[in-house]
Structures are given as structure tokens and as C-alpha cells.
Amino acid sequence: MSKDKQRKHFDKGKHQYPGHLVLNPPRHTERELALVMAPLRQGRLKDGVADFGAGSGRLTIALLRNNIRTTAVDISRRSLQELMALAKRIGKTNYLRTAGRLDKGPYRAIAGTDILHHVDIGKYLPIFSRHLDKDGLIVFSEPNAWNPAWYLFLTVRSSWEVEKGILQCTYFNLQGTLRRAGFGRVRITGFGLLPPPLLNWSPPLAKLNYFLGNCPFLKMFAYRFIIEGRK
Description:
By secondary structure, the protein is of the alpha/beta class. The chain has helices at about 5-10, 20-25, 25-35, 60-65, 75-90, 120-130, 150-155, 160-165, 170-180, 205-215; strands spanning about 50, 70-75, 95-100, 105-115, 130-145, 185-190, 225-230. The protein has a 7-stranded mixed β-sheet, sandwiched between helices. β4 (about 105-115), α6 (about 120-130) and β5 (about 130-145) form a beta-alpha-beta unit. The model has no long low-confidence stretch (mean pLDDT about 90).
């Protein structure tokens, strides 16, 4: 999908992550964001983090709540307006900058959720590498193309034209593309085997699901991947 079509798609409120869930994320989202943010809480990374594909703030708000200075990057101006409104509600606008693209750098880290499958990762991962400083870090949370639950979800709730980039997001393709882009230290963590939202009602089953999703071999079929790469 072209950038213009993506912009028009995500400018529509119904295609943005709901504000009430940004401010009060469900249990599985809290755990997912905690995994993404764990390396970003390290001392030298507390400044200079870019949230690429920030949308209405699913990750950005969590970063701001941890007093991490963040540049929220998104092609949708309306999404960034919604994000700024949420940042005002939590009193963290002094930690936030918005931009339509990665226009400054170098960044100490670039992070994001549900964005890599909307771009050509073979093109964008090298761009991220160039925008990072020495020993820079990327961390992303993405759906796994080898988990069949996503195809049911996309059929019922979304558009294949918008989401077809999910086919890039397999364990081996992500690992290989990251290394070709200059990331020598790559770590991919599996997040759940079954869709985690289905198990929020039972903490013991949720814990088992997270364990299975990151087991050797089973990890390749995890519901999501938490992708970390260092230069």
C-alpha cells in the first residue's frame, strides 16, 4: 500500500488504537509493552528514543510515563494530534516531540509496535541503522506470519491490503534481514502461542501461554515477536 493510502487509512478514527486502551491497556498489552520497554529503560537510552509508527500512542504513552524523552513519528497527522491530546492528559508533553518522519538523529533507540509489517523491512531496517548512534538499539513488537490466528483476525477485523506485509514477519526472515541491515546482535522473543487476549481471565493459563510461546521451536509459531537488534 502506498504512503498516501496508508495516511488516509490511519487518519480515520476507526483505524486508530482507541485512546481509552492507550491510557488503560489490558493485561496482555501491559506485558507486551513491558518487554518492549525493558531495554529502553537503561540509563543512556532514557533520552533520544524514536517511536516509529507511533499512531495514537500505544507505545509512546508508556514511554512518557517512564519519563523517556520520545520523538513520535507517524505519517498520520490526525494520529499525532490524538497522541498529543493523550500526552496532555497525563501531563507529559514536555517529554514528547512529534514528526512525520525520522528527520533528525542520531537516535539512541528506535522502537515501535505493529509497524514493521506496514513497511518494506528490507528498505527500512537499513534506514533505522543509519539513524542510530554507535551501539544503537531497535525494539519492535510485531505479529508472526506463521501463527494462524492472525489470518482469522485479519479476515474478520481488518483489510488484507493494509496488513499483507505480515508475510515478511517470520522468525528467519526477520533475523536475516536484521543482520543484513547491520544489526550484529539480534534477539527475537516469542510472545504467547495462543492469542494472549483470550487468556486474560486466567493468570495461570496466561503464564503457561507465554512460556510456550518462547520455547525453542515453538517460538517460530508464537503469536507475536518482540524483536531486538543492536548495531
